[in-house]
Write a structure and sequence with these properties.
This protein is α/β, with parallel strands linked by helices and about 290 residues long. The chain has a 6-stranded parallel β-sheet, with helices on both faces. The termini are far apart. The protein has 11 helices and 6 strands. The chain has one domain: Rossmann fold, CATH 3.40.50. α6 crosses α7 and α8 packs across α11.
Length: about 290
Amino acid sequence: MKQAWMVVALMLFCGAAEGRTILFVGNSFTFGANSAARYYKPETVTDLNGPGPTGKTTGGVPAFFAAFAREAGLDYTVSLETVGGKGMDYHYAEKRALLDKPWDVVVMHGYSTLDQAHPGNPALLISSAKQISDMFHARNAKAEIWLDATWSRADQTYPSAAPWHGKPIQQMGIDVAAAYAAAAKAAKVTGVVPVGLAWNRAFDTGVAGENPYAGIPAGKINLWSWDSYHASAYGYYLEALLVFAKVTGKDPLSLGDSESVAEDMGFSKPQTRALQQIAHDELAATNQLGL
């Protein structure tokens, strides 16, 4: 009997030592397209799709998260499943065999315009979020599921034929956030990561430039990459800070301006502090950190 209890205790210890599992499901906005984030420390995460055409595996926002967690003394086993240009409906239909497991935490998002065929229409996001969340909850009823509400695309705002043309750059982020709030309610998930609203805060406070087509003013950060669509390393860093804070409950400012990812990306200390402050302030504004 004593030996049996020792075996059980060892099993419990080993299970605890493995830490929490977290899965990221998304597209280029998760894998860090057009930036140094894409292949950042891929050995620290598990890419469920394996190496891409170049033979490389992805680090991206999940690897940023993994680094933050290590710096905070937290134990997470980080995995990702990403396909460029796809929403949650695709992942459920085509990648279910990889995803249908009892994850502790899931962070996921849909296509950047909500529906590629019908920009701004939230119906597909709402239905697919519920469908895939039901799958995860069937495997683990206690799973924490976070929807990652993405940012305004300059290329969908400033060009004359763009769906959000004539509106302020903040409007797409506001519309996307509202759609994700509706999806979160329908899917009964843990909550929403307000990435797009944090980008808006960066615009509103002068930390980031609003219009890359007109040029980003000196001293301001360009959150977009060269295509004015995907994020730059700065934009993905802000996304990762918000995910880290939501999932762990840790204040982004606790990472400090000597944080390793920022140093690896070549950010200045003032830039690092500014991005961490934006994340802190966006979450504090909605009392998400109890501040």
